[in-house]
Amino acid sequence: MKLIGSYTSPFVRKISVMLLEKGIIFEFVNESPWLEESEVPRYNPLGKVPALVDDNGQCWFDSAIIADYLELQHTPPAFSPADPLKALQVRQLAKLADGITDAAVLIVREQQRPGNQQSEALLIRCRGHILRGLDRLEQEARDGQWLHGDTLNLADIATGCMLGYLNFRRIVPDWCVERPALVKLAEDLFQRASFARTVPAA
Length: 202
Fold this sequence. Notes:
The protein is about 55% helix and about 5% strand. The chain is an alpha+beta fold and about 200 residues long. This is Glutathione S-transferase.
């Protein structure tokens, strides 16, 4: 398999972690989607990462779709419950973590614009999305049914990559205040070899 993406993308990291946890051998192709000469559109017409080329040459894009594809290969461990409704609950939490990541990426991109061109309304709205999403994930992590339970799942991986991105880009640096369950989840995940091997370089 070939994974196309950037080392700093939390969505690419999510797929890298899944592949490493499953012991699937893959080639990583470092491609930034933001460069004019980027090769990413060859794999994804939307010009976004990650993209995955499977052993049959089929190209898959969007991290949620790639995650589904990997689960359909039935390579252990499974990161979604066998029961369809339970699997949907896990995927919804993973999607919530992805949505928080989307908001964080928007903040990063907006803050790269000249100060007088930045939209304060956009930044406030994105921070609101992040804080509300974190509050919900904190509740889920405290409950321990679908997040930070007995076995690692897709929601755990997506949440860990999201929290890692918040730390890496220093978005909402006080996210850990009054969210002890998420802090414990992050501590446990970041000790895993798959997360340690995919820490983005500063």
